[in-house]
From TrEMBL:
<comment type="similarity">
    <text>Belongs to the NAD(P)-dependent epimerase/dehydratase family. SDR39U1 subfamily.</text>
</comment>
<feature type="domain" description="DUF1731">
    <location>
        <begin position="272"/>
        <end position="304"/>
    </location>
</feature>
<protein>
    <submittedName>
        <fullName>TIGR01777 family protein</fullName>
    </submittedName>
</protein>
<feature type="domain" description="NAD-dependent epimerase/dehydratase">
    <location>
        <begin position="5"/>
        <end position="223"/>
    </location>
</feature>
<dbReference type="Pfam" id="PF01370">
    <property type="entry name" value="Epimerase"/>
</dbReference>
<dbReference type="Pfam" id="PF08338">
    <property type="entry name" value="DUF1731"/>
</dbReference>
<dbReference type="InterPro" id="IPR013549">
    <property type="entry name" value="DUF1731"/>
</dbReference>
<dbReference type="InterPro" id="IPR010099">
    <property type="entry name" value="SDR39U1"/>
</dbReference>
<dbReference type="InterPro" id="IPR036291">
    <property type="entry name" value="NAD(P)-bd_dom_sf"/>
</dbReference>
<dbReference type="InterPro" id="IPR001509">
    <property type="entry name" value="Epimerase_deHydtase"/>
</dbReference>
Length: 328
């Protein structure tokens, strides 16, 4: 199978590139900074020689977009919007122009499209799209608009021979350096992994191995198109999520943080508190209905698996290991 991954050098792209290559597929990564033999350069907005890789491939998984791990300034929010919409638009143009278009186009999206809520979970059929919730920062609505425009760019692309799926993904958990699991684990090992702002907000997540399996499942299922939630069936409140993560690392205590403390921490990390404070209670309705079985449906099992792998990565790189009695 020939797979093209626009934006395939980020955390999720690296996970897919590694897994699909190991499975024997021919993977081409389209990136602004080509560094390996199977990389092709592009600018993320205009057609170019890179489009030849799409003509004749079997699958496109478009992951391109500016990282959300940044301060949500007006400039950065606009860059998030433009990078996602422009890349989806030009991928659609490449598919439309192909003499042998791919049979399926999986387009990365986000579970952030759903409303901030605590009372019920969002699936694809009954979930509430966000943007008008009371009592949340105004700029959260812009994050929802980014997701909506991202998906619209794919949906409106004139590609009748190519099935289209929008991947409304929760946070993908992997032990890779710099990913969300690595950042949260570092906080936990430092004793800072307590609840933030009370910790009632829900965390939706998916183990990286289940993410890859879900992508492979959706590639194979010709009867599924449109938005699909890629999230484990076990979202849980932040306070419980972090408690389980601390237990997996053997860290007994996690200091809590107030909202203003979270603001200071996010500023220091050049990130934004929406990533911590928005309640994302998302469940995989369509995957479940289609018969997909999660290897890691609950966070306890997933966290144990990820910590074990992270310890191996740390040992291989010569980094010191955390003990159960003190942080590293």
């Amino acid at each position: 199978m020939k797979v093209v991954l626009p934006g395939g050098t980020g955390q999720v792209g690296t996970i897919l590139d590694r897994a699909l290559t190991a499975a024997g597929h021919e993977v081409t990564v389209v990136t602004r900074r080509p560094a390996r033999a199977h990389h092709i350069g592009w600018d993320g907005a205009t057609l170019g020689r890179w489009a030849a890789a799409i003509d004749g491939c079997d699958v496109v998984v478009n992951l391109a977009g500016r990282s959300v791990s940044c301060r949500y300034t007006t400039e950065n929010l606009r860059a998030m919007m433009d990078s996602r919409v422009d890349s989806a638009r030009v991928v659609g143009e490449a598919i439309a122009a192909a003499s042998r278009p791919p049979r399926v186009w999986l387009q990365m999206s986000t579970a952030t499209v759903y409303a901030h809520r605590f009372d019920a979970a969002h699936d694809e059929a009954t979930g509430v799209i966000g943007g008008s919730e009371p009592g949340v920062p105004d700029y959260w609505a812009y994050s929802v608009a980014i997701a909506e425009n991202w998906e619209r760019a794919q949906a409106e692309a004139p590609t009748p021979a190519t099935r289209k799926v929008a991947l409304r993904s929760a946070m993908v958990m992997s032990p890779d350096r710099g990913g969300v699991f690595d950042v949260l684990s570092r906080l936990a090992r430092l004793g800072l992994g307590g609840p933030v702002a009370g910790g009632a907000q829900y965390v939706s997540w998916i183990h990286d191995e289940d993410f890859v399996r879900a992508v492979e499942f959706l590639i194979a299922r010709d009867d599924i198109e449109g938005p699909v939630n890629l999230a484990s069936p076990g979202p849980l409140p932040h306070r419980d999520f972090m408690r389980v993560l601390r237990t997996a690392w053997g860290i007994p205590v996690g200091l809590p943080a107030t909202r203003w403390m979270a603001e200071l921490g996010a500023f220091a990390l050049r990130s934004d508190t929406e990533l911590l404070l928005k309640s994302r209670r998302v469940v995989p309705g369509r995957l479940h209905a289609a018969g997909f079985a999660f290897t890691y449906p609950d966070w306890e099992t997933a966290a144990t698996s990820l910590v074990q792998r992270a310890r191996l990565v740390r040992a291989a790189s010569g980094r010191p290991r955390a003990s159960s009695s003190h942080a590293v």
